[in-house]
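seq as requested:
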Amino acid sequence: MVERRSILDFIPHLVLLLGIVILAFPVYVAFVASTWDAATIANGHMPLRPGPHFLENYYKLLFVGTGSSTREPVGVMMLNSLVMAMSIALGKIAISLISAFAVVYFRFPFRMAAFWTIFVTLMLPVEVRIYPTYKIVADLNLLDTYAGLTIPLIASATATLLFRQFFMTVPDELVEASRIDGAGPMKFFFDTLLPLSITSIAAMFVIQFIYGWNQYLWPLLITTRDDMQTIVIGIKKMIVTQDALTEWQLAMATAILAMLPPVLVVIVMQKLFVKGLVETEK
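struct tokens:
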């Protein structure tokens, strides 16, 4: 028996393909622009096919630098962004796991008060507390350091809330079984809770990695040396006020390079990321 499909069944696919084209076309234009020279882009007649300067432009960016807007290669910027994003993501996950574990499984005075204090900080983003945070970092001589870039952004009320809600769904029988087996709190944490939290950790890692990679305001304030700036700051410096002086082919190439690590993280961790967001029962 051959199943006949109505033409209406293909409409969602057509809408999806149209959305992909709308989203992907600007990225394709940026890639094409990164393969041409400045004169071709400036005259307004850039073709929609890749140009002959692909290797030249990307090699100059990664290993030489633009010269006019920043004296450091983009490879250094990407390394700084990678260190910042990884440190923020792993630091947030580690601190949030431990704090959620303490709030759920330990009974100590003002336990819920501590949790609600952490929760209230959701209403205090970095932009609100930017001046006192900068003052403390400057007094500690952490300007132009990886510690200054990452430590003030590590604490996360969102991740703590996520892990707390997950830990509360873990059956009490697992805790009792661990106690019967003679396992202490930390053994229960590492041998039982962490394996069960893999999907939640993966989802939080993807979110926090992209959050750290895309940071603009804090690195802009905390870094003064070219060798410590992140790739987001590098893109901003390449786009100067005088449009004629902007090397658009290098700016577009930098934007393409800046997009690759977050996309790679999402692709590699896609299955765990989706499970961590949609699974309600473990």
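The mean pLDDT is 84.
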